[in-house]
Amino acid sequence: MEKVKEFLEINGRVIVVVVLVLLGIFAISAATSNDDNAEENQTSEEVPGIPLSDSNTDRTPATPADGVEIGSKPQAGPVVIEKTEKTYTADARQGDNQTVIVRQIVNEYLADTDQSLNAAQRLFMETNLVNLLPRDDVIAVGEEISLTEDDIAPIAEEASSLTEAAQNRWSAYL
């Protein structure tokens, strides 16, 4: 008994550290196992409107109930923009995204106001106008996207006054 007491006094800290390390390894192992199970459960969950593919090894995109394949190319031709007094509005078509629609709104606005911007300045406008819209990774066919002249005008003014250095930085994304 005396030897055990002496051993614990000398090596007590080492024993505590070893036990803590083993508990940490066990906890990490259990967490990793739970993450793998959660990932398996997540991939097998059905998302409303998007059917699961027949096989887990099939990596082709699932087609939603409306028949529009996610990631499909936009329909041919420019987006149709309807302009009221101070608002530019467009309905999303198959394959459209916010940037495609905003790009056409920018084109219409610049034509209506007789302004001419280079590609970097247009990119600046598109990016900042898209940032005004609600964040949607996928927009539905027929969804309406609108921007007012009050939204567009200040960004157009800022784009037209970009310095050459700023334009060069934006050009890197073209």
Describe the 3D structure.
There is one protein chain. It contains 5 helices and 3 strands. With 174 residues, the chain is mainly alpha-helical. It has 2 domains: 1-45; 81-171, no CATH class. The chain has a 3-stranded antiparallel beta sheet with strand order 1-2-3. α2 (98-112) crosses α3 and α3 (119-130) runs antiparallel to α4. The chain is elongated and about 95 Å long.
Helix content: 40-55%
Order of helices and strands: HEEHHEHH
Biggest beta-sheet profile: 3 strands, antiparallel
Using only C-alpha atoms, the radius of gyration works out to: 29 Å
The average pLDDT score comes to 78
Q: Runs with pLDDT <50, length 5+?
A: 38-66
Q: Structural class of the helix and strand makeup?
A: mainly alpha
- Strand line-up of the largest beta sheet: 1-2-3
Give the tally of β-strands: 3
Task: Tell me the span between the first and last alpha carbons.
Answer: 78 Å
Q: Name the overall outline.
A: elongated
Total of DSSP H or I helical runs spanning 4+ residues: 5
Strand coverage percent: 5-15%
Blueprint of the fold:
Elements: H1 2-43, E1 81-83, E2 87-91, H2 98-112, H3 119-130, E3 144-148, H4 149-160, H5 164-171
Antiparallel strand pairs: 1-2, 2-3
Short description:
The chain is mainly alpha-helical.
Keywords:
mainly alpha, three-stranded antiparallel sheet, 2 domains
